[in-house]
Design brief:
By secondary structure, the protein is of the alpha+beta class. Helices cover about 55% and strands about 15% of the residues. The relative contact order is 0.17.
Length: about 110
């Protein structure tokens, strides 16, 4: 089975929001958690992840602060804001509607 190289436009935002909703984490950990939870299907590279994090922070959906990582290195940890929780709910609802519509089309006989 091939691994998808590109995510549907906008899904990376949803994946990041959902991941940091679980707990605050740094960028590398976000990418690893997405990979782990997706059963090794979704791989988010740094070239996509960090611009997305920056955009979400500019939108006020996540905030960041410098902390020491589990390896005692300084890392920027991201967490969800109140606006981010609302955006996550909206994005998840939109995704459910879109994926249901796509599934219906794929299953059509």
């Amino acid at each position: 089975m091939t691994k998808p190289k590109d995510l549907v436009q906008g899904t990376l935002d949803l994946l990041i929001l959902k991941t940091v909703a679980l707990e605050p984490m740094h960028g590398w950990a976000i990418a690893q958690r997405i990979r782990q939870i997706s059963g090794e299907v979704l791989h988010v590279g740094q070239s996509a992840l960090y611009p997305a994090l920056h955009k979400l922070e500019q939108q006020g959906w996540i905030k960041s602060e410098w902390k020491l990582s589990e390896t005692n290195r300084r890392a920027k940890y991201y967490s969800l804001t109140r606006a981010g929780r609302k955006a996550l709910a909206d994005e998840a609802e939109n995704w459910e509607r879109l994926s249901a519509a796509i599934s219906a089309l794929v299953r059509a006989v």
